[in-house]
Design a protein that fits this description.
Elements: H1 7-17, E1 22-23, H2 26-29, E2 46-48, H3 53-66, E3 70-73, E4 92-95, E5 102-106, E6 111-114, H4 120-129, E7 134-135, H5 147-152, E8 168-175, E9 180-182, E10 215-223, E11 225-226, E12 231-238, H6 244-256, E13 264-268, H7 269-276, H8 296-303, E14 308-315, H9 318-333, E15 339-342, H10 343-346, H11 350-359, E16 377-382, E17 385-387, H12 390-407, E18 414-417, E19 421-431, H13 437-454, H14 467-472, H15 475-488
Parallel strand pairs: 2-4, 3-4
Antiparallel strand pairs: 1-2, 5-6, 6-10, 7-11, 8-9, 8-10, 12-14, 12-15, 13-14, 13-18, 16-19, 17-19, 18-19
Helix pairs in contact: 1-3, 6-12, 7-8, 12-13
The structure holds flavin-adenine dinucleotide.
Flavin-adenine dinucleotide binds next to β3, α5 and β10.
Length: about 500
């Protein structure tokens, strides 16, 4: 596969997209090169910004003929997960942000058809401009991230429809040999149910395009959430780390039985304190955690937060909401000490207010301030899932805390909870400018990954440079995924090595 591109290759690619949409100067490539890997930046050979599916197809055709490696991204805002970089340097990055049209909006059946460049902020604006009948499901990360890119990487949001890949339907995909597939019912020429009925006929191929490198998605349907008549948020805080078990047991039952329809977030004190900080905390000694655990009780008191903070939202007629939140409060309080913050008060706190926006379909990126834990803060996000039960939540907390402490990092975590499992969402935050910090973060992350795997917990969304390591533990699953690669991408031009998938036998 390619190293630096020959002039003839660049010329041919420039003819497809237009020379103004080819980036090949070092300063232009830098934003696409920033890597969390201690090995340093990972520069692409060039970046192409195509404007249509036809251009994407022509690029794929050239890549097959000339043996180039292509790395598709929608907006490249994979904060904490590898940003815009490919597994290896010298790829041709295909950046799809110019393809940012909302192609269809069905206001009866509640779906849109989007190109990959459409952002959360853009979709929210569009829905507001069209009467606000539907909500999108935002993330707590960058508002200019891509709705499709996030879903294709199995991203999650905070509304009741927070499983983002689950909201996709009728994917249009340029596969590795340049042909175009529409998944599901859309495989039938002229199908009228491409965006309304899931499943199609025979095997469901949609799922193959989540976290893979079999194709470049050029449009897809996204199901929306009908805007409810009212919504009300809440925060329930418990005083000690070991109260996590009882809080999770109550929250789990309420989530499964529909008492709390939003994604529930259970954030620890350090996570909230980091977001609250108006500016980066002063640097502790190299190798020491930025907040000493002994300081935490006083900081919790000063900021009015608990050791764990359960944040969620309920929906329905406005006049019913307060009474329903009171019932939730009773359920949590029955298990031990609890502080309840009604939405109006919680909105005053920086660590909580933004969460109500995103649970109500309004993008808000305040959470990026979690990086204020350090000067030049950046992170590797550790995202294993555990069953939604107190005992396993406590096990995950104790293991993570121990490993973070041993490696000199603050235990910074929030559990994002769906009905049966909780995604441990734990940024290992480090000072990106400090010597050796990236290597220490990597070591910590590796140990977290392997010790969690030993305990039966899989990291389902690893950063780019850990994907191979995680897939290597998955036996036949990984082997078959590599075999499938050949059917979609016989010359292996798409993102070689992503999730450990390439044509070379391992
Ligand atoms: C503080 C903070 C909060 C965050 N909160 C959340 C959150 O709530 N939920 C969440 O899910 N994430 C969250 N993130 C992580 C991340 O920022 C988001 O997931 C973001 O949406 C990813 O960037 P993107 O949408 O631009 O996707 P991209 O970077 O464009 O895409 C992600 C990956 O998918 C693949 N891909 C993208 N587009 C295509 C395509 N068209 N065809 C084929 N493959 C493609 C590529 O391999 C790419 O690397 C958070 C990060 C931080 C730092």
């Amino acid at each position: 596969m390619s190293t630096a591109l020959a002039q003839g290759e660049i010329g041919e690619l420039a003819q497809i997209v237009g020379s103004e949409w080819v980036l090949d100067q070092r300063e232009q490539l830098l934003p696409y090169a920033v890597s969390l890997d201690p090995a340093g930046d990972c520069f692409p050979a060039t970046v192409l910004r195509p404007g249509s599916r036809e251009e994407v197809q022509r690029i794929v055709e050239v890549a097959n003929r000339r043996g180039l490696s292509l790395h598709p991204i929608s907006r490249g805002m994979q904060h904490g997960l590898g940003m815009a970089t490919a597994v290896a340097p010298d790829t041709v990055t295909i950046e799809l942000s110019r393809m940012d049209r909302i192609l269809e909006y069905d206001d009866e059946l509640g779906y849109v058809v989007l190109e990959p460049g459409v952002t959360f902020a853009q979709l929210h604006r569009f829905l507001e401009e069209h009467g606000g009948r539907y909500w999108c499901s935002p993330i707590s990360g960058p508002v200019e991230a891509s709705v499709l890119g996030n879903a294709l990487d199995k991203g999650a949001g905070y509304t009741p429809v927070g499983n983002h890949f689950g909201n996709l339907i009728g994917l249009e995909v340029v596969i590795g040999d340049g042909r175009v597939l529409t998944t599901g019912d859309g495989a039938l020429p002229g199908a009228k149910t491409t965006y309304t009925h899931k499943g199609g006929c025979g095997p469901m191929l949609d799922a193959l395009f989540a976290q893979s490198n079999y194709g470049i998605v050029t449009k897809a349907g996204v199901w929306l959430m009908p805007a409810p008549p009212g919504a009300r948020g809440f925060v329930f805080s418990v005083p000690d780390y070991d109260d996590l078990g009882r809080a999770v047991d109550v929250a789990g039952r309420l989530k499964l039985t529909g008492g709390i329809p939003s994604t529930i977030s259970i954030a620890n004190d350090v996570f909230c304190l980091a977001v609250e900080a108006a500016e980066p905390r002063p640097m502790a000694e190299p190798g020491a955690a930025p907040i000493d655990e002994g300081e935490l009780p006083a900081l919790r008191e000063a900021h009015g937060i608990g050791a764990w903070n359960v944040v969620g939202c309920i929906y329905g007629p406005s006049e019913t909401l307060e009474a329903r939140v009171e019932k939730l409060e009773q359920a949590f309080a029955a298990t031990g000490p609890l502080a309840y913050l009604p939405e109006e008060e919680a909105r005053e706190r920086k660590a909580f207010g933004y969460r109500f926006d995103i649970a109500k379909g309004v993008p808000n990126e305040t959470e990026l301030d979690v990086y204020n834990l350090h000067p030049n803060g950046t992170s590797l996000y550790f995202l294993p899932s555990v069953p939604f039960r107190g005992a396993e939540a406590l096990e995950a907390m104790r293991l993570s805390r121990l490993i973070c402490t041993e490696h000199g990092f603050a235990y910074t975590n929030q559990f994002l909870c769906s009905p049966r499992s909780m995604r441990n969402t734990q940024p290992v935050i480090f000072d990106g400018g400090a010597d050796g910090a990236a290597q220490r973060a990597r070591d910590c992350f590796s140990e977290l990954t392997s010790r969690f795997a030993d305990s039966g917990y899989l990291v389902s969304r690893p950063p780019t440079h850990f994907q191979q390591e995680v897939m290597d533990g998955l036996g036949l699953h990984a082997e078959l995924a590599r075999s499938v690669k050949r059917a979609f991408d016989p010359n292996g031009v798409l993102d070689p090595g992503r999730f450990g998938l390439s044509l070379e036998d391992r």
